[in-house]
Amino acid sequence: MGQSLIEIAQTLKNTTKKVQLIYAFNGTGKTRLSREFRLLIAPKSIETEEETSIKILYYNAFTEDLFFWDNDLDSDVNRKLTIRPNGFTNLALTFLRDQGIDGNIVAHFQRYTNPFLTPRFSPDFSEVTFSIDRGDDQRISNVKISKGEESNFIWCVFYSLLEQVIEVLNIAEPDERSTGDFNKLEYVFIDDPVSSLDDTHLIELAVNIAELIKSSTSELKFIITTHNPLFYNVLFNEFNNADSRYGYKPRHGIKSRFEKLNDGTFSLVEQHKDSPFSYHLFLLSELEKAIVSGSIQKYHFNFLRNLFEKTSTFLGYNKWEELLPQESREAYYRRIINLSSHSKHNGEEISIIEENDKRVLSYLVGEIKRVYDETFEPSAMDSSAKEFLTKAINDYNAMFRTSYSADSKEFQNYYRDLAKRVKSKEVDLLIVVGMFLTGFDAPTLNTLFVDKNLRYHGLMQAFSRTNRIYNATKTFGNIVTFRDLEQATIEAITLFGDKNTKNVVLEKSYDEYLEGFTDVATGEARRGYIDVVKELNEKFPDPDAIATEKEKKEFSKLFGEYLRVENILQNYDEFTNLKALQAIDIHDADAIEEFKETHFLSDDDIASMQKISLLTDRTIQDYRSTYNDIRDWLRREKSGKEAESSKIDWDDVVFEVDLLKSQEINLDYILELIFEHNKKTKDKVALVEEVRRVIRASIGNRAKESLVVDFINETDLDAIQNKADIIDLFFTYAQGKQKAEASELIEEENLNETEAKRYITASLKREYASENGTELNALLPKMSPLNPQYLTKKQSVFRKLTLFIEKFKGVGGQL
C-alpha cells in the first residue's frame, strides 16, 4: 500500500541524512511534493499567507512564477524582468543586495549561457534588464532573453543565495554571523534546477551543487529531486565520493526513487546499489506498466522519447529517430515530438490520448526492445559468458568447417552464417536468449519452445517466427511454452487489436469448431465442420454438374468455408486422429486396439469418431479442382463483356488461395503417382483422368496439365524402373518441349528471336511474365506504336508468353 504526499513529506522530514537525492519521472508529483514539504516545515499564516520564519529554502517550477516580464507594449523598447514581491523574494533579494553579490549572479549566469549576455539589477533589486556587451563600448540594450535563459537566470539567483547562506551558516556561533535571518533554516529543497542546459553544462552544474552541499558543515539538510537521468547519475556518483576537506562521507546521503502507484498513492524506494540505477530499464518498466494497466497518458511519450534518446546514445546512433521503424519514420517522429512537447508545468499535466496513440506507443516500445535485444555486443559480456559463447562457436566451426570467433566483427559473420544455415535447414535446433526472436524470417521454422516471460510486442514478434505457411509440410506453427503465458498472450492480442480481438484470434475448442459456436465478437452463429461437410455432400455431390453462375458462387462460398474450418481443425490432435482413423479397418479388432494405444484413445472416443463424416481425399481433390476452375473462370470471364450482363454479385466471395497453396501438391508427387498408378492398372486412359483431376486441384501446376498428359501419352511408362527415373525422364521431356514450343511461338508471332529468348529466359527464371520495362516491346515484330494493331498485337503476344511461362516454369533447361 502506498502513501499520500503528506506522508512522503513526513518521511523526508524524519530522515537524519544530510542529503536526500530522489529520482522521479515527470508527472509523478515531485513538484507537489516540494510544496507539501515546505508547508510541513514552515506552515503559512492563514491571514497573511507568508512564511512565519525562514525554515526552508526551496526551488521548483513555481519559483519561476516569481519573475515575470513587464514589457513596454506600446513601443516594445523598455523590456524588463520584474520580481514579484513576497516573503521569500523580499528576504532573499534584500540579503543579496546587502551582501553586494549581484556580480556572483552575473558570473554564474554567463557561465551557463552566454559570456556577453549581462543582467543588470535595479537599485532596489525589484527589476532586471538584459544587454549584450561585446566590449569596445558596444552594447545592445533591453534584450528579451529566451525562456531557457530566463530559467537559467532564476536558478543562478537561487544558487548565489544558497552559496551565501551556506557560507553564513558554516560559522558555528550565531552571534558571529553577518546576518541572523537564516539561523532557523533547516532544509533546502531543490526540484529540477535547470532543464534547458546541454549535457556539458548540466554535468558541470551537478558537480558544483554536490561540492557546494558537501561544503556545508552546519546542520542544514538538503533534498534534491530530478527527472533528468544524467543529472541524477552525476549527483549519485558525486555523493558517493567522500570529501575530507569538509568531513563528508557517502553515508551522509541517501538515494531514492519516488513513484506514483496505480491507485493514486506514492512510494519512496531506496536505491541500495553502489552505482546509479539503470534508469533506461526502469523507464522501460514504467512504460510497460502503463501499457498493462491501460493507463497511458500524454507524459508517457516523454518517457518514450527519453528512452529513445538514451538507447540511441548507448547503441552509437547519431540521432534518436534513427531507431524508429523505417517504414513510417517521419510520421512516428512527428507524433512523438507533438505528444512529448510540454509546458513548464508538464509534470503536473495528465492528458488522455487517443486509442491509436496508445497503440503507437505500445508498438514503439516493442520496437526499441527489439533493436536493443538484436544489438548484441560480445565485448560487453562477462568472462564466463564469453567463454561459453567461444566454446559454442568452436563447436560450430568444427561442424561446418568455418573459422568464426567471439570477437565483435567475427561474431556478426557467425550470426549471419548461422541464420543462413537455419533457413536452408542445415541446423535443426537453435537455442537463443534474445536474438532471432524478432526480424528473423525462416518459413521452414516449425516449432518455438519458450522458457522465457514474453510480453506484448516481444511476445507477438517471437510467436510470429513460426507463422509462415510452408506448403503442405507446414500449414501452421507450433508454440510450446514451459511458462504460463496465456494471460500475457491475451493482453498482447488485445493491445494490438481492439477489445474483441482476443475472441477472434484465440482459438475455440475442438468441439466448437466441429459442431459450431456463436461468435462472441459479432454475435453471429458460426457453423461447424460437420454441418459444412453435410451441406457440401447434399448440394454438390457431383462438382462437375455445377453449371450456372449462381451455383458457382454458392459452391465457392461453401467450399471456402470448408477450407477455413478444416485449416483450423488441423491444429488439433483430435482431428489428426480422426483423419488417421479413416485408414483403419474398423472391423479389424487388432488394428483398432493398436490405433487406440498409439493415440491414447478409449472405446468411447472411437465410437464418437466413427459418427463423424469426412470428405474422402478424392472428393476433396474434385472440389479443389472445381474451386480452381471457377476462380480461373471468374478472372477470365469477368474481365470481358460478361461482367456487364451478370446479375450475380461476387464481392462477398473470397477465394482462399493461401489455404490452397498450403496444401499444394508438388510436381514430384504427381510424377510418383503416375509411376505407382501405371504399375497397378496399365490403363493410360484411366491414368490420364486421374492425373487431370489431381493437377486441376493444384494452383501451381494447373498450367502443366497438357505437358504432363502429353508425357504420359508419348512415353513408354512400362519401361521405367523406379520413381527417380520417371522424374528424370519427365524433366528431359519437358525441356525438349519447352525448346520446341518456344521456337514455334517465336516463328508463329514473327518475334525478334534474340530478344524473345532473352525475355523468356528471364521470365522463366523469375517464374512470371512481366509487361514492365522495354523488354516486351523489344521482342515484338517491327511495327510503329502508332499503328492501331500495335497494342492488340502486344496484348496477344503477352498472353501467349504468360501461358508459356506458367507451363514451363521450374522445368529448367536452355532455349
TrEMBL record:
Protein name, entry field: Uncharacterized protein
Residue ranges of the TM segments: none
Domain Protein CR006 P-loop: residue ranges: 130-346
Pfam families for this protein: AAA_13, EcoR124_C, T1R_D3-like
PANTHER family xrefs: TYPE I RESTRICTION ENZYME ENDONUCLEASE SUBUNIT, TYPE I SITE-SPECIFIC DEOXYRIBONUCLEASE PROTEIN SUBUNIT M AND R
Keyword Hydrolase listed: no
Domain Restriction endonuclease type I HsdR second RecA-like helicase, chain residue ranges per copy: 370-484
Domain Type I restriction enzyme R protein C-terminal: 505-808
Keyword annotations: Restriction system
GO biological process, one term: DNA restriction-modification system
InterPro entries (UniProt xref): CR006_AAA (IPR026866), HsdR_RecA-like_helicase_dom_2 (IPR055180), P-loop_NTPase (IPR027417), Type-I_R_enzyme_R_subunit (IPR051268), TypeI_RM_Rsu_C (IPR022625)
Organism: Spirosoma telluris
